[in-house]
Amino acid sequence: MTSEPRARPPLANLETVCVVARHGSFTAAAEATGLTHGAISRRVGAVENWLGCALFERHGRGVRLTCDGQRFLGRIEHAFDVIDAAADQWHQARKAPAVRLSVVPSFAKLWLLERLQSLEAGQPFIDIQVTTEHRNADVSAGEVDIALRYGRGGWASVDSEPLLGETLYPVASPEIAQQLRHASKGKDSGASVSEMLAMPLLHDSDLTGWRAWCGAQGVSLRPRARDRRFEDYTVVLGAAEAGLGIALARSPLARDWIARSRLVRLSDVEVPCPLQYHVVTARREKRPEVLEVIACLHAAARPDVRTHIA
User: What domain of life does the native source organism fall in (predicted)?
Assistant: First the structure.
């Protein structure tokens, strides 16, 4: 029959012994902990009574550890290290979940970054780790948890759902806008397609948007040597502002950027873009943190949700 274990002193008393040893006096330990000198003395005394030996001996205005005290303190500090290590492992296991999100740089700059804090503001907190890249991250292979892809959808081996559609209309620098006003003789409806096609067209990866805008007005657009292609859509907008040609505004993606720029709208005609942003995940994604981020993205993309721009 096993005997009952001897009652242990409170951890607070053992911590007090360590504080006294570290500071070398009861008075300094009292100042460091906010306790009274008497409380420090009682805690140390309780541990000494439990051990049946003295831990400190007085000298001058302070105390130093006895031989027994040195041995005991070494074991106690080791025990506290074990407790701290266990606590660290527990906190690591329970830390905020992370969701890896892949986007193209232009979408990050024009839409995502100014909404990122609000996307992470839910309870519990979810750490959204954003990767910006022009290539399509391999979601099915686990490179990222969510990818925001621009296209028509229907990608193989992944699940996708529409996030953000766009409407298109042409914009250019004030100087080009002025030239077109002269060419169109100040028509209220803005410049015609033929008048704009006399200028270089600016676009990113392909002409899909421009083909849709021109096609809606009965004009078939073919690639032209004078047009300029840039990999990143924000560079397309920057080139338009610099007077290098005419770009298509993609609303709502570029709405706030254009409002802060010097770009001028050239036509009242706007058409839906055949391409849109989609949320892409691995097949049958069920992790709660991933589904929560997807729900937050959809909420942020609703037409009535606007982010304050200073």
Answer: Bacteria
